[in-house]
């Protein structure tokens, strides 16, 4: 199994009681990436962002190469083994689906891609996972746009995130920067970066930007989502 997918330990079953089935996985004592994002101000450390993104991209690539997609990539489903050095795993593998399967949506609406919102179904490809990774990177950078959790606002949220990523790309030029990758993740489906290319970009960034600091320039009127 890929090293950055949560490790399966055991399974507990009760006869004639499917609801009692339990999967036992490795212990990740530091909680989820969502908690790490919530407690970081104004953003997570750049090196931590780089390594977490690379590790999740490798986990997604592992699935995609086996004609599977995760379907619910988000910070709450990324667990932290260690902080120094950064070591995270992609969890909640119960909803992994075979490529081509297009179920109705039941994940987290703020991570839906534009095409998911338009069709009301999963795309059946890996493109949805890459979009959700982009939204996750946006959160690690402290750049989540605000959203009200109404259907109308959630339906508009993918476009809001795409537009914000493009603005960040203009204000923070340079393909080397993680913002350059963000623009490729939060792009229209036909231009969205795939998992293998994402891994290659992140490996280069982790090598070139080791120890670097990151300053993000956002539009003057932008106010990020707050968790306090």
H/E element order: EEHHEEEEHHHHH
- The DSSP helix count reads 7
* Rg computed from alpha carbons, rounded to a whole number of angstroms: 17 Å
Computed structural class: alpha+beta
- Biggest sheet: strand arrangement: 1-2
Q: Which blocks of ≥5 consecutive residues have pLDDT under 50?
A: none
**What's the total count of β strands?**
6
Helix proportion range: 25-40%
Estimate the strand proportion: 5-15%
Major β-sheet annotation: 2 strands, antiparallel
Topology:
Blueprint: E1 8-14, E2 17-25, H1 33-38, H2 46-65, E3 68-69, E4 78-82, E5 87-90, E6 97-98, H3 114-119, H4 127-140, H5 151-171, H6 178-185, H7 195-208
Antiparallel strand pairs: 1-2, 3-6, 4-5
Helix pairs in contact: 2-4, 2-7, 4-6, 5-6
Keywords: ATP-binding, Autophagy, Kinase, Nucleotide-binding, Protein transport, Serine/threonine-protein kinase, Transferase, Transport
EC number: 2.7.11.1
GO biological process, one term: protein transport
Account of the 3D structure:
This is non-specific serine/threonine protein kinase. Pfam families: Pkinase. One of its GO terms (cellular component) is cytosol. Residues 1-205 form the Protein kinase domain. Its main location: membrane. The protein is α+β, with helices and mostly antiparallel strands and 228 residues long. Helix content is 39%, strand content 13%. The protein is built from seven helices and six strands. It has helices spanning 33-38, 46-65, 114-119, 127-140, 151-171, 178-185, 195-208; strands at residues 8-14, 17-25, 68-69, 78-82, 87-90, 97-98. The protein has a two-stranded antiparallel ribbon. A hairpin with a 4-residue loop joins β4 (78-82) and β5. α2 (46-65) runs antiparallel to α4 (127-140) and α2 packs antiparallel against α7. The protein is globular, with a radius of gyration of 17 Å. The relative contact order is 0.15.
């Amino acid at each position: 199994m890929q090293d950055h997918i949560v490790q399966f330990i055991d399974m507990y079953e009760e006869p004639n009681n499917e609801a009692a089935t339990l999967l036992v996985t490795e212990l990740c004592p530091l909680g989820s990436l969502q908690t790490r994002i919530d407690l970081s101000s104004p953003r997570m450390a750049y090196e931590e962002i780089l390594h977490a993104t690379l590790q999740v991209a490798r986990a997604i690539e592992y699935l995609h190469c086996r004609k599977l997609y995760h379907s619910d990539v988000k910070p709450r489903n990324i667990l932290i083994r260690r902080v120094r050095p950064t070591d995270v795993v992609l969890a909640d593998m119960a909803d992994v689906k075979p490529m081509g399967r297009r179920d109705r949506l039941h994940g987290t609406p703020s991570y839906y891609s534009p095409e998911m919102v338009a069709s009301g179904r999963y795309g059946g490809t890996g493109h949805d996972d890459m979009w959700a990774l982009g939204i996750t990177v946006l959160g690690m950078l402290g750049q989540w746009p605000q959203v009200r959790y109404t259907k109308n606002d959630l339906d508009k949220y993918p476009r809001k995130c795409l537009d914000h990523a493009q603005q960040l790309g203009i204000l923070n030029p340079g393909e080397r920067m993680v913002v350059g990758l963000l623009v490729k993740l939060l792009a229209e489906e036909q231009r969205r970066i795939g998992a293998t290319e994402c891994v290659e970009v992140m490996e280069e960034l982790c090598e070139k930007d080791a120890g670097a600091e990151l300053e993000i320039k956002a539009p003057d009127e932008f106010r990020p989502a707050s968790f306090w």
